[in-house]
């Protein structure tokens, strides 16, 4: 066995348990958090699995209240099989993260920046760095499409690199088609990837040896995108998802500046380390058979573009800096790649037959694995925390919204008749199977478009008209602590009344005959009203009274709401004669 093969064999032997250790450490640190935004996806997936199309609730109205069609389609088989949705989401996210490692490694290998002997150290370093990042732990367990985003970007990068080695005309044509689909697929993962894919295509056109094939691929992506937008216009009546209206409405200059700045502060040490390791690898160098022509420039652009987009976006529910996940995951993977190339360069300086090469590679792998736990407050892998299925069930077991929705579904004769208006559009409609009007517009396009209505009074009138047309049975009047039966109307950037609550809405509810029933204790007190002439009112009043007796309370004098321009008082509800 020659020295190179012996070195690679020893590295692999050292890496196998190290990779398992750091991978298990990463998985055990996932913070599974049952949340409403994830359940918005789960509602759509359940309806799609049941053959009801891209609808959110039993009304069957098609709407694009989701940002990632690709992620939604991945969830559908799990929903059809009855798999716990938070577990399914965590599996998809974890698999996406591991795919990121494989895709980047494959791209670097294909471009000649990596050798096969670099893979063990790269895998261990990448997993160790990712396992130390609490943002990764948060987004892995948040149930959203977050980690699909960098995976889609790296899939495009790998496809772009693949064209450089295509030799025959047939293979170049096949590659061009594949690159077109990779660009389109990235946009199905996140719509804002349209800007990122455009930037990556520009790099490919400038630096690729297959410029004509890249141009054909770009044309193919544009054609697919045009068909997609036309289909959306027919099905949804709009080319924009609801998130566009909720996150891009005018709220001042650079609304995401604070969010981006905070993410950069957290990412700064890793970014500095990446630059230092990359410069060191180049100087020690001659470690790389050739310089990167596509991968490194594309990684730089892919990490930068989300920051620019983020400056202009209102970061609603931006937990774990999930809207900037491309930036910090690609930086962390780049650091791991630079370290792997650096160690190879140092080993090469010892000479081709030197035993120290094997020792250096093995030591680097073991040191990287140890770094996943040394200096952290978090332990290494814990067997009890590797059971993601049980942890997912535990996250949902006592969730107050799921509990409330399940209570309604099990006790109402036909829960699909119930019409509920609330701004948290996820867990309650999923558990109750009710008709649901999202007062914050995430799952309700007409309300989402109200974010762009400049006249606050007109916005309030249109909102009340939409609720009246929905004919609700239950309405969440407000949330927050009520003192002496009164509370201030809550301010929320999630609401179409992001610039201030409107008394006209409270008056509109009064005119619909909404009366106060009781207050449910959840993450905050949720004050529930019932439409007193609803056919379901005789069922709802005793059901809600029983539920609030053990899971909330009743304000004896009714509920009073204070608005900037006055107040509205909701008397205790009593059903109108049927």
Q: How much is the radius of gyration in Å? A: 27 Å
* Total helical segments: 22
Shape, per Cα inertia axes? elongated
Question: What is the mean predicted local confidence, pLDDT?
Answer: 92
Number of separate structural domains: 2
Q: How many beta-strand elements?
A: 9
Biggest sheet layout? 6 strands, mixed
In the predicted model, the low-confidence regions spanning at least 5 consecutive residues are none
Report the end-to-end length measured between terminal Cα atoms: 90 Å
Order of strands across the widest beta sheet? Answer: 2-1-3-6-5-7
Description:
- Strand 1 (419-422), helix 18 and strand 2 (435-438) form a beta-alpha-beta unit.
- Helix 3 packs across helix 4 (85-111), helix 4 (85-111) crosses helix 16 and helix 14 (325-349) runs antiparallel to helix 15.
- This protein is α/β, with parallel strands linked by helices.
- Strands 2-1-3-6-5-7 form a 6-stranded mixed sheet. A 3-stranded mixed sheet has the order 4-8-9, with helices on one face.
- It is elongated and about 95 Å long.
- The chain folds into 2 domains: 3-386, no CATH class; 398-570, no CATH class.
- The longest helix is centred in the middle third of the chain and has 28 residues, at 257-284.
- Helix content is 59%, strand content 8%.
- The model has no long low-confidence stretch (mean pLDDT 92).
- The protein has 22 helices and 9 strands.
What's the layout of helices and strands?
Layout: H1 3-28, H2 36-49, H3 69-80, H4 85-111, H5 119-132, H6 134-140, H7 148-162, H8 169-189, H9 193-207, H10 211-236, H11 242-247, H12 257-284, H13 295-311, H14 325-349, H15 356-371, H16 388-397, H17 400-411, E1 419-422, H18 427-432, E2 435-438, H19 445-448, H20 456-470, E3 474-479, E4 486-488, H21 503-511, E5 514-521, E6 525-531, H22 537-551, E7 552-553, E8 559-563, E9 566-570
Parallel strand pairs: 1-2, 1-3, 4-8
Antiparallel strand pairs: 3-6, 5-6, 5-7, 8-9
Helix pairs in contact: 1-5, 1-15, 2-3, 3-4, 4-7, 4-16, 5-14, 5-15, 7-8, 7-9, 7-13, 8-10, 9-10, 9-13, 12-14, 13-14, 14-15, 20-21
């Amino acid at each position: 066995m020659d020295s190179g093969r012996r070195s690679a064999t020893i590295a692999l032997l050292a890496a196998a348990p190290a990779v398992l250790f750091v991978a298990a450490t990463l998985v055990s640190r996932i913070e599974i958090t049952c949340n409403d935004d994830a359940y918005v996806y789960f509602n759509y997936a359940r309806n799609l699995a049941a053959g009801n199309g891209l609808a959110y609730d039993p009304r069957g109205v098609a709407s694009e209240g989701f940002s990632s069609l690709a992620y939604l389609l991945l969830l559908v088989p799990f929903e059809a099989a009855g798999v716990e949705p938070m577990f399914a989401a965590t599996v998809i996210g974890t698999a996406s993260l591991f795919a990121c490692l494989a895709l980047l490694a494959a791209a670097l290998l294909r471009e000649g920046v990596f050798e096969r002997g670099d893979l063990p150290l790269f895998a261990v370093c990448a997993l160790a760095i990712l396992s130390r990042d609490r943002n990764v732990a948060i987004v892995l367990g948040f149930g959203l499409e977050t980690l699909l985003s960098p995976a889609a970007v790296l899939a495009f990068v790998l496809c772009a690199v693949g064209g450089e080695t295509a030799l025959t005309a047939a293979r170049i044509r096949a590659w061009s088609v594949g690159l077109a689909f990779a660009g389109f697929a990235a946009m199905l993962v996140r719509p804002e990837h349209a800007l990122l894919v455009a930037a990556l295509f520009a790099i490919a056109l400038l630096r690729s040896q297959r410029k004509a094939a890249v141009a054909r691929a770009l044309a193919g992506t544009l054609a697919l995108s045009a068909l997609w937008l036309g289909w959306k216009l027919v099905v949804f009546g709009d080319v924009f998802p609801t998130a566009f209206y909720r996150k891009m409405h005018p709220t001042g200059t650079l609304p995401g500046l604070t969010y981006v700045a905070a993410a950069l502060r957290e990412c700064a040490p890793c970014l500095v380390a990446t630059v230092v390791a990359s410069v060191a690898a180049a100087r020690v160098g001659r470690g790389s058979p050739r310089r990167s022509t596509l991968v490194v420039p594309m990684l730089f652009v892919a990490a930068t573009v989300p920051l620019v987009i983020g400056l202009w976006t209102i970061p609603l529910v931006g937990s774990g800096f999930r809207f900037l996940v491309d930036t910090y995951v690609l930086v962390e993977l780049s650091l791991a790649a630079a370290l792997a190339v650096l160690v190879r360069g140092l080993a090469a300086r010892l000479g081709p037959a030197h035993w120290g090469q094997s020792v250096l590679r093995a030591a680097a792998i073991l040191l990287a694995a140890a770094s996943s736990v040394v200096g952290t407050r978090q332990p290494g892998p814990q067997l009890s925390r590797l059971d993601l299925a049980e942890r997912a069930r535990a996250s949902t077991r006592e969730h107050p919204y799921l509990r409330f929705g399940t209570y309604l579904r099990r006790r109402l004769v036909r829960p699909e008749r119930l019409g509920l208006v609330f701004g948290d559009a996820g867990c309650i409609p999923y558990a109750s199977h009710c008709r649901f009007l999202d007062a914050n517009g995430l799952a309700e396009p007409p309300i989402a478009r109200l974010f762009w209505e400049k006249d606050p009074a007109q916005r309030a009138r249109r909102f009340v008209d939409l609720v009246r047309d929905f004919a609700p049975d239950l309405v969440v009047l407000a949330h927050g602590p009520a003192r002496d039966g009164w509370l201030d109307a809550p301010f929320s950037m999630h609401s179409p009344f992001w610039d201030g609550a409107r008394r006209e809405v409270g008056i509109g509810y009064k005119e619909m005959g909404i009366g106060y029933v009781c207050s449910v204790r959840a993450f905050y007190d949720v004050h529930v009203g019932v439409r007193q002439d609803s056919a379901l009112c005789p069922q709802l009043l005793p059901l809600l009274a029983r539920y609030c007796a053990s899971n909330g309370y009743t304000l004896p004098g009714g509920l009073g709401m204070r608005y900037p321009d006055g107040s509205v008082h909701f008397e205790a509800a009593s059903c109108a004669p049927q």
